Amino acid sequence: MDDYKDVESSGELKQHSATDSDTHPKLYVVVAFLTGAIASIGAQYIFCTPQSGVNTVSVPQRSIEVFAPPYAGSSEVHHFPPASPTNVFPSLFPTDVGHAGPTPTGAEAGLIATAPSYPVHSGAPHLVSPASMNKGDKHKSSNFDIFKHWGNLSPWFSVERGAFGLDSGPEVPETCSITGLHLVHRHGARYPTQFASFGGPANFSGRLNQAAAGWKAHGDLKFMNEWTYKLGEEVLTPFGRQQLFDLGVATRIKYGFLLKNFSESNTLPVFRTESQDRMLASALNFAIGFFGYPFEGQYQQSITIEEKGFNNTLAPYKTCNNADDKAKSDRAIWYVRRWADIYLKDAHARLAPQLKGYDLSIEDIYTLQQMCAYETVAIGYSKFCELFTEDEWKGFDYSLDLYFWYDSAFGSPVARVQGIGYVQELVARLTHTPIAVHNSSTNATLNDNPVTFPLGQSLYVDATHEVVVLNILTALNLTTLAAEGPLPADHIPKHRTFKVSHLAPFATNVHFQVLACDSVAEPQIRVIVNDGAVPLTGIKGCPAHKDGLCPVSTFVDAMREMIRDTDWAWGCHGAWSVPEGTQWNTTVGYPPLPQ
Ligand SMILES: *[C@@H]1O[C@H](CO)[C@@H](O)[C@H](O)[C@H]1NC(C)=O
Ligand SMILES: *[C@@H]1O[C@H](CO)[C@@H](O)[C@H](O)[C@H]1NC(C)=O
Ligand SMILES: *[C@@H]1O[C@H](CO)[C@@H](O)[C@H](O)[C@H]1NC(C)=O
Ligand SMILES: *[C@@H]1O[C@H](CO)[C@@H](O)[C@H](O)[C@H]1NC(C)=O
Ligand SMILES: *[C@@H]1O[C@H](CO)[C@@H](O)[C@H](O)[C@H]1NC(C)=O
Ligand SMILES: *[C@@H]1O[C@H](CO)[C@@H](O)[C@H](O)[C@H]1NC(C)=O
Ligand SMILES: *[C@@H]1O[C@H](CO)[C@@H](O)[C@H](O)[C@H]1NC(C)=O
C-alpha cells in the first residue's frame, strides 16, 4: 500500500528520496521569524531571486532531484527543469518593477456566517474519470463516483450531510457566531511514497520492466504494451498543489473575518507545517491561496523538523518507537491481505489470463487499482480505472478503511498516544495556557515560546499527514466514528461511519470551530470534518446537540482526562506486544495496559 508506514506514517525510511531534510537549508527549518525568510522560501518556490547572478539562480537544486527520482520503477522520466538553462538573466527579469496601480483592499469575507448556504466541494476539477467502467456489476448506480472510493488516495470532497450521524452542516448554527478556528489539514495529492507494504506501483512497474521481453498483454490490458510508468515519488502532484491553493482560498472566503483579531492585537498569524517536501509545498500553496501573492509580511510559517528523534506533534511517529515497529503495520496488512483475497478474486480470474508470460498475483491486481488512483491524481487520467467494477472499487475503498483502522486509528494500539500531543496543544490554545509537562511528542523549545506557539489567537492552521489526522481523531475520543467496532476482514459492514475517504483523503481538513452563542453563556466548540459535523457525544460530558456543539470547558475537561489517561512512555516505549490477526482488539486506539 502506500503511505503507510513510512512516509505518511512512521518513518524508518527517512533518508529516502529528495523529499526530506537534505533539500531544505537548515536556515529555514526552525521558524521563519523574519518575513524576509518567508520571502525567500516563497522565492525558492516561485521565482528567481533578483539578486543572484546568471546561472546561479533560478533553479534550486532540489527541483532537479525531485523530478528525477533515482529508483527503478519509472520507465519514463522527464528532466525538468534543465540543470543549466542557458537563458537565465535574472537582472532582465526583476520581480518588483513598481507601477502596481491602485491596491486598495476591501473588508474580510465571512461566508460561513453571511451566506444562506455553504459551498459544496465536489472534488476534482482537472481530473478525468474513466470513460467506461467494467460492466460486471449487477446493480450499478448511475451516480457512482470513483474518486470517492480511493480511501486515503481520494481527493477530498464535502461529505454528505449526515455522514457522521448529525443532520447539520458547517454553517454557523443560528444565534451563534464564530470566534475562532483551529484548522488541521493534510497535504494534497502526491506521488506514491517509497514505502509500500502491500501493493506498490513503482515496485510493480519495476518488475514488469525487468521482465519486459517476456510478457504480452491482451484484451482489456492491451494498453499496457505501450504504457510507461510516469510517476515520481513522495512530492505533490500539480493537482495536489491546486488542492491546497483552493483550500487556502476557501478558508479565506469562509473565515477571513478572523483576521481582524490579528489587526487588533497587532500580531501576525503563525501557521505550522513540517520540513518534508510535500508538507512545506502544501503549506505554502495554502498560504498563496489564503493570503495571495505576495504572502510575505502577512503571516509566519513555522516549519518543524520531520526526522527521527525530533519531538513533533505533527510527525509523532518520529519519536514513538512502538509506532515504528513493523509488527504494527503487519497487523493492518494482515486484514488487507485477507480482504483482497476475497474482493479481488473475480478480478484476478478475469485479468490474470490477459497478461501472458507474467503471473499476476492478487497483490498485483491490487496494485493496478492503486495505479488508477495514483495516475489519475498525477497525470489526470488512468486507463487502469476502466478495468474494475463498481463493487471492486467499493472493495478497494474498504481495504484502505481496514488498513488505517488497524494502523492509525481506533483499532491501532499506538493511535491515541500519537494524537495526544496535538490534543495537548489544542487544549493550550483553547485555554490560553502553556503546556505544563512535555511528556509526549510536544516540543518544549517551540511550544513554550509564545512567538513560535502563540496562544490567544483566533486562527490556527496546521498541516500534517493522514495518519496523524486519524491519530488526532482517535485521541479526541470521537468514538462515534468507531461505532461499528473492529472492522471485519471478510465483508464490508452495512453501516459504518469510519471511512478513510471521508476522514483522511488528500487535503482532508478538520475544522475546530469555536463559537459564541446567544442561547448559552459559555463558549462552544464543534468539530467539522470535510464539511460534515461530527457528534461529540463520545467525549465525556458533551451533550447530544443537534449541531454537535459542546461547551469548551466540558470539552477541555474531557481532553485533560484523555491526556492524563494516555501514557506516552508506555504506549511508545513500553514492552507490550499484540498478536497478529483477530486475537486482540482495541476500539480506543490504545495498547494493552501494563499487567
Ligand atoms: C520489489 O519488491 C521486492 C520485495 O521487497 C524486492 O525483492 C524487489 O527487488 C523489488 N523489485 C523492484 C523492481 O523494485
Ligand atoms: C524541537 O523543534 C526544534 C525545531 O524544529 C528542533 O530544533 C529541536 O531539536 C526539537 N526538539 C526536540 C527535543 O526534538
Ligand atoms: C521530547 O519528548 C520527550 C518524550 O516525551 C520529553 O521527555 C522531552 O522533554 C521532550 N523534549 C522537549 C525539548 O520538548
Ligand atoms: C483574538 O481571539 C482570541 C480567541 O478568540 C481572543 O481570546 C482574543 O481576545 C482576541 N484578541 C483581540 C485583540 O480581539
Ligand atoms: C476482534 O475483531 C474482529 C473483527 O470484528 C473479530 O472477528 C474478533 O473476534 C475480535 N477479537 C476479539 C478477541 O474480540
Ligand atoms: C472516551 O470514550 C470512552 C468509550 O466511549 C468512554 O468510556 C470515556 O468516558 C471517554 N472519555 C472521555 C474523557 O471522553
Ligand atoms: C504526562 O505526565 C502527567 C503527569 O505525570 C501524566 O498524568 C500523563 O499521563 C502524562 N502524559 C503522557 C501523554 O504521557
From TrEMBL:
Keyword Transmembrane helix: yes
InterPro entries per UniProt: Acid_Pase_AS (IPR033379), His_Pase_clade-2 (IPR000560), His_PPase_superfam (IPR029033)
MF (Gene Ontology): acid phosphatase activity
One Pfam family of this chain: His_Phos_2
UniProt cross-references to SUPFAM superfamilies, sorted A to Z: Phosphoglycerate mutase-like
UniProtKB keywords: Hydrolase, Membrane, Transmembrane, Transmembrane helix
Domain of life: Eukaryota
Segments crossing the lipid bilayer: 27-47
Keyword Calcium assigned: no
PANTHER family associated with the record: MULTIPLE INOSITOL POLYPHOSPHATE PHOSPHATASE-RELATED, PHOSPHOGLYCERATE MUTASE-LIKE PROTEIN
This protein's name: Phytase
